[in-house]
Amino acid sequence: MPSREKDSYNIRSVENALRLLEALADEGNKCSLAQLSQRLDMTKASLFRLMATFENHGYVERGQLSGEYQLGLAAFEVSQKLLSKMTLLRKARPVMTQLVRQCNETVYLVVQRKQEVLFLEMLDNDQKVKIVPLTSQRFPLQSCAAGRIFLAFGEMNTQLLANQPQLENEVNHCRDQRYCIDHNGVGEGSTCIAVPLFEAGKTIVGCLALITPSFRTDEDRVNKELLPALKAAGEMISAQLGYNAYAHRRTA
């Protein structure tokens, strides 16, 4: 395939929409269509169409009396989610590094995306035999240990669990023991051990997953080495995110 400059892939309408959002963010206060038209060198008609689309989706709000525009709650929510993930990464990475050194197995930070889990960040080991990297890959919630952690501690998807008594039992078991283990869930010959990550208020914000070839994870090693280390790492990250495990145990 011939190489192409990045600019050749730009979609002008999307580029204009992004410029508009950036202008509203830079402005801070409400601004009129005329001000934006002059600043962005775009016609009022083009701006109005973009504004109407953003307004329909909550990214822009328009004053009923002034007719001026400002960023809406949807834009704020997106920025807050991004900041939350950045905080989670910043808090988790040093603990994950120590966990990899301790166990010499690959560790992932996992987050939920609707009905899937996304393997967001990976810290690798120096073993010769490894599971294929999963960074940026997605799996259905019910398909692996990391996903079942979110089913256990997040907002329960009753539709997903309906008429699946075995899955419901597994999810309940994960909730009771505060961890989940699966074999072959993220690849043939793999073992995944996952624990939840909480922030203040016992809201699950992520999952810490240790993934290794199954031949290195006999029951004795899991129970005596891997699981205690993973649980301790998860509790440490949760504490740094503001979760008070002792307080929640007392009120449980």
Compile the SSE list and pairings.
Blueprint: H1 12-27, H2 33-40, H3 44-56, E1 60-62, E2 69-71, H4 73-103, E3 106-113, E4 116-123, E5 138-140, H5 145-153, H6 158-161, H7 165-177, E6 180-183, E7 190-199, E8 203-213, H8 219-240, H9 245-251
Antiparallel strand pairs: 1-2, 3-4, 3-8, 4-5, 6-7, 7-8
Helix pairs in contact: 4-8, 5-7
Characterize the main sheet: 6 strands, antiparallel
At CATH level 2, the architecture of the largest domain is 2-Layer Sandwich
Strand order of the largest sheet: 5-4-3-8-7-6
Mean pLDDT: 87
**β-strand amount:** 15-25%
CATH homologous superfamily grouping of the largest domain: GAF domain
Stretches where pLDDT falls below 50 for ≥5 residues?
Answer: none
**SS content category:** alpha+beta
Rg for CA atoms: 23 Å
> Secondary-structure element sequence?
HHHEEHEEEHHHEEEHH
Summarize the model shown.
The protein is of the alpha+beta class and 252 residues long. 49% of the residues lie in helices and 20% in strands.
Task: Quickly list its features.
two-stranded antiparallel ribbon, six-stranded antiparallel sheet, Arc Repressor Mutant, subunit A, Beta-Lactamase, 20% strand, elongated, 2 domains, 252 residues, alpha+beta, single chain
Describe this structure in words.
With 252 residues, the chain is α+β, with helices and mostly antiparallel strands. The protein has two domains: 6-71, Winged helix-like DNA-binding domain superfamily/Winged helix DNA-binding domain (Arc Repressor Mutant, subunit A); 81-251, GAF domain (Beta-Lactamase, 2-Layer Sandwich), CATH 3.30.450. It is 49% helix and 20% strand. It has nine helices and eight strands. The protein has helices spanning 12-27, 33-40, 44-56, 73-103, 145-153, 158-161, 165-177, 219-240, 245-251, and strands at 60-62, 69-71, 106-113, 116-123, 138-140, 180-183, 190-199, 203-213. Helix 4 (73-103) crosses helix 8 and helix 5 (145-153) packs across helix 7 (165-177). The longest helix has 31 residues, at 73-103. The model has no long low-confidence stretch (mean pLDDT 87).
